UniProtKB/TrEMBL annotation, chain A:
Keyword Transmembrane helix included in the entry's annotation: yes
Name of a matching Pfam family: BPD_transp_2
Entry annotated with the keyword Membrane: yes
The name this protein goes by in its record: Ribose transport system permease protein
Membrane-crossing residue ranges in chain numbering: 29-47, 59-78, 90-116, 128-147, 167-191, 227-244, 264-293, 305-322
Membrane topology: Multi-pass membrane protein
InterPro entries per the UniProt record, alphabetical: ABC_transp_permease (IPR001851)
Key words, A-Z: Cell membrane, Membrane, Transmembrane, Transmembrane helix
Primary localisation category: membrane
Highest rank taxon of the organism: Bacteria
Organism: Limimaricola variabilis
UniProt subcellular location: Cell membrane
Automatic annotation (TrEMBL), chain B:
Location of the ABC transporter domain: 10-245, 260-502
Pfam families: ABC_tran (PF00005)
Organism: Limimaricola variabilis
Record bears the keyword Heme: no
Record's protein name: Ribose transport system ATP-binding protein
PANTHER family, per database record: CARBOHYDRATE TRANSPORT ATP-BINDING PROTEIN MG119-RELATED, D-ALLOSE IMPORT ATP-BINDING PROTEIN ALSA-RELATED
GO terms of molecular function: ATP binding
Keyword terms: ATP-binding, Cell membrane, Membrane, Nucleotide-binding, Repeat, Sugar transport, Translocase, Transport
Keyword Heme belongs to the record: no
InterPro entries documented for this protein: AAA+_ATPase (IPR003593), ABC_carbohydrate_import_ATPase (IPR050107), ABC_transporter-like_ATP-bd (IPR003439), ABC_transporter-like_CS (IPR017871), P-loop_NTPase (IPR027417)
Amino acid sequence: MNQTPATTSRPTLDRSARQDLFRSMLRQYGGILLALLVLCIFFSVANPRFMSVANFMNVFQQVAVIAIAAFGMTWVILLGEIDLSVGSIIAVAGMVGAQMFALGWGFAPALLVTLLTGAVMGLVNGMLTAKLLLPSFIVTVATMSIYRGMVSLPTNGAPAMITDPTWTAIGANAFLGLPIIIWIVVALFLVNHIALSRTTFGRKTYLTGGNREAALYSGIKVDRMKIVIFMISGLMAAISGILLSSRLYSAQTNAGMSYELDAIAAAVLGGTSLAGGVGTMVGTLIGALIIGALNNGMNMMSVPYFYQLIVKGLVIIVAVWLDVRSKRKNA
Amino acid sequence: MSQPDASAVLTLKDVEKTFGPVVALKRMSLTVRPGRVHTLLGENGAGKSTLMKILAGVHAPSAGTITLEGRPFVPLSPQDAAARGLAIVFQELSLCNNLTVAENILATREPAVAGFISDRKLIARARQLVEELGLPVSVTARVADLSIAQRQLVEIAKGLSHDAKVVIFDEPTSSLSDSEAEILFRIIGRLKAQGKAVIYISHRMEEIMRLSDDITVIRDGEYITTVEARETTIDHLIALMVGRRMDEIYPPRIGDGPKLHVAPVLAVKGLTRMGDFEDVSFDLHAGEILGVFGLVGSGRSEVMNALFGMRRASGEIRLDGKPATIGSATEAIRHGIGFVTENRKEQGLVLSHALRPNISMAALPRFSAKGFLKPRDECAEARAEVARLAIRTNSIETITGTLSGGNQQKVVLAKWLATHPRVLILDEPTRGVDVGAKFEIYRIIRQLAAEGTAILMVSSELPEVLGLSDRVMVMSEGQVKTITPREELTPERVMSFATGGQK
């Protein structure tokens, strides 16, 4: 009884933990980074201008709107939920900003109200999911429709011009040689990445997504997690909406249409499991870059839009299949 | 063992299974005769599961021969094995929760009319089967609405729905109460009488001794010996199984035991939840192990859930003499209560995650500052718990789901020990755990009590309750029937309280 052999625990824990980390990083992102590389090589061969710094900036800027929405989406999917209202919130955000300016508000208050609107729309999603116990898929299909309809309320469906110099500068200007949009994406990536990987809130997200009931029994307030995370998704979508309207100098009623699907695709390409509990912001960022590279590369090759849709869908299927397969092998 | 046995229905000869360099099973030989119960005994990881999977057609053996009724037996899938006359009642529940009992029992073999499943025939056939077996389950109930124990009975009905010559039970009683186990034993008796061969896998020595005709011990993937149940003892079997002598099953109390005259840590008075339990009152002292015994449906698990804030209940709970309201698990944990739940897969662990986050998950405030995790503290704690509980794992970053049942259960314990609980509720702490891990868990429980933790231990294994408790509380039909010091109890007295026979 006194001599159970396993009490002599392995001495190599620390060293191997570090190696494991590197290996797991490679295992986690190896496949998808390879996919990104293959795409880049392919597009550079097709059009040498693809590999230029200027074009990379371009890809990054184009990808910003989707990447930021995808950061929010990653939280939601990690929790085992889904948010289909993201595209509509993007449009609402632009319109709210435009209307604030139409009322003569300044930049700061308009920005604040816009962000708040996004968060409140997320709050509604979260409350309906957590408190009425409705599946988030159904809730956000409904709010996707509701929010999309609300975009047209102020203008009866017409686009609204935005002339505020600060708002439009976000999409047009640069800071220290880099477009402001890129600074924003990088900053938001860091905030989301650190929050997810370093904070108790991030940890609780993983645990709740991994096993809701076990999380509940461990004292994690699962309902509150849901509500806060849908608010994060709404907030991220609102920021996406601000960037989009700033680049377009206007709020369009059909802005961000079907962007939720690109955001989901970016997260899933990045290795986020739709079952919840597995995924990272790094993966999502790479996933968004793949989608950006695809869009940009095919535009440069003058591929018609409908072909682009088909190719994008196929790439997603192949990439996710490769990913799933390699993980199964390693498991 | 070597010459072919004419009376055998199932024979395994020198069966081996390797996975790459890993030898999971070697030189496994088994002779199973009709009308007899043959028990396979071994710790988790001894190779029983591999053997089951070979018999079920999940794995093909790397070497050796299997014959069923004299013909070579090479099943391609569990369905194929069943069709050839070998049925398996699985330990892990394989039922679809959103289907009815009837649909589950006859899954993939639903009676159909013109391609459409005939509900009427389905229900009739399932009902006939359930009645034949004498199961207290409605065939039209949804599995999701059944208790774990009832689900297990459905699983058994499903396994027996084929006309089998050999029936394998893989730990069928691990989630059954004693009275439900009795139903199962009756079923096994009936199968025996019908001349069927039964292969029985269990960790519960008492029932093994009672049921078995032959017992084969395996250890580390290797065949050790086959003995007749009549000619052996529990101690002998355990010694064979673990390869070392077990002088006693339950470790003795460490130190002087609880101080029952001082004020209790936890005092519960008149706790009531209509329909579940009523007027539950008891005291729990530091260092005390209060065993809670009751049959399934006695309300014992519901009381534990209420104490942990997972169910609303009226009544008074005092911690260290101060009234406490416990409205959620968060509050319970803040009050220093830990809860090792009955069901580790569903309520205990995130199986897809590593050990480290599982161990820290109930004590995140201890491993963080201003909302940021302190990975160093977390790792140190996880490592300390792994060492303290002798959890067999390569690293704290191993995925929890890959561990054996006993080690998973220790991870659940580790998770609660990491919260430094004053009161630890254990609901079926050794369910589905092999004997070796069981003893280690008992030792840990003793150790915790000696360190002053107040322990509330729910178990449906009577020997476990009597072997560890300082006092025993018996519940029946939502009421506390008695709270009595261990010394004054016999198994018979406890059972008579539990069945409501004594006032």
